[in-house]
Amino acid sequence: MTSRIVVNNIQADAGVSTVTFGSNIQGNLIGNVTGTVNSSGIATFSSGLVVSAGSTSAPSISPSNDSNTGIFFPSADTIAFAEGGVEAARINSSGLIGINTTTITHQVTIQSGALDAAVSIYRQRNTTGGNLVNIYDDVSSTKNLQFSFTSGGDLYLHNGNLIFSTSGKGIDFSATANSNAGMTSELFSDYEEGTWTVVDSSGAGLTLSVPNGPNSYTKVGRLVTAQTQFIIPSTANSTHATVSLPILAGANNLGAGALYRYSDGASVYWHINTNAATAAAYNSTGGQVLWSQISGRRFDITFVYIV
User: Fold this and answer.
1) Is residue 124 part of a domain?
2) 250: number of CA atoms within 13 Å, CB side?
3) For the chain, how many structural domains are there in total?
4) 88, 201, 238, 247: least surrounded by Cβ within 10 Å?
5) 305 CB burial (10 A radius; 0-12, 13-18, 19+)
6) How many CB atoms lie within 10 A of CB 108?
7) 3-class DSSP assignment, residue 276
């Protein structure tokens, strides 16, 4: 039978440096203990254990022979962890976690320091397949899979779109071998589609009829495709016929122009003006076509050009 001492209180008096018991102690120890308290078994504190706040260099709870590594309490309702006298992580009073930083702005804030990546995920398994990472959004206790990374390196967006919040950023295809030595960019950075209404851009003030307006356009990268149908009013105006485009054309549009689905009367060639959002009409010999020369005519056109 294991022996033990049962007392109400044990109080260390002045001048007593050591109190040694070879058996179990049950009761209360009242007073200050300076030095080391060793327990070969499990120490149970039914009313809690109160320690000093500690600091980064001297945590209040630390292992033997490593006094600058452990747990300390830098402020009210905050728990921090030190390694080698340097703060490694903390949980602040709002329950937010900071790793390698004391400036916590999200549920988990990580500062990578000198490392290449703030977070690295490694999965070791004997079989292939499955997802490496699944990210869920729990709304009203309903777990919704938002996006996932597969073991094959594919990214799936299950709900929502891929949004680039910085202009000029996009999808980089530079890993793919170039098809032409004159390649200048492999970044797909823009897509846009919408509606527009073609108008007289010559300054003549004509009102074009657009029976099926508004018209539609699509911009893929630098390539714009704009479809329109318009009818020119009956006019004797001698201004060079010029109509609007939905997006400003670039400086190099040597091959740009208009594709006809329908045009009543003699051929008219619509030339895309460089550095402008306009197209001007010309005849087969390169001469300007005036509004009066195409008075009352209808054009069903697809403009194709580069921005």
Assistant:
1) no
2) 13
3) 1
4) 238
5) buried
6) 10
7) coil
CA distances from 50 to 53, 71, 79, 166, 237 (A): 9, 13, 14, 51, 95
Element (H, E) at 218: strand 215-220
- Which domain, by its residues, includes 209? 191-306
Partnered with residue 240 across adjacent β-strands are 290
Residue 270 neighbours by CB distance under 10 Å: 24
Q: DSSP E strands: which ranges in 221-294? A: 223-231, 242-244, 257-263, 269-272, 278-282
CA dist list (Å): 37 to 8, 9, 64, 246: 20, 17, 12, 82
Q: What is the DSSP annotation of 245-263?
A: -SS---S--TT-EEEEEEE
3-state helix, strand, coil in the chain (%, to 5): 0, 35, 60
Task: Give me the CATH number covering residue 286.
Answer: 2.60.40
Q: Which residue has the higher pLDDT, 51 or 45?
A: 51
User: What is the per-residue pLDDT across 158-174, written as a single tens digit (0 to 9) for each?
Assistant: 888 888 899 999 999 88
Task: Match 């970044």 to its residue by tokens.
Answer: 187
In a domain, 16, yes or no: no
Inform me whether the pLDDT recorded for 1 exceeds 60: no
**Cα–Cα dist 106/58, whole Å:** 28
Three-state SS for 116-178 is CCCCCCCCCCCCCCCEEEEEEEEECCEEEEEEEEECCCCEEECCCCCCCCCCCCCEECCCCCC
Please report whether residue 217 resides in a domain. Answer: yes
101 belongs to a structural domain: no
pTM for the model stands at 0.66
Q: Can you read off the two tokens belonging to residue 30?
A: 């009242």
CA triple 228-231-234, angle to 5 deg: 160
Torsion 32-37-42-48 (CA) sign: positive
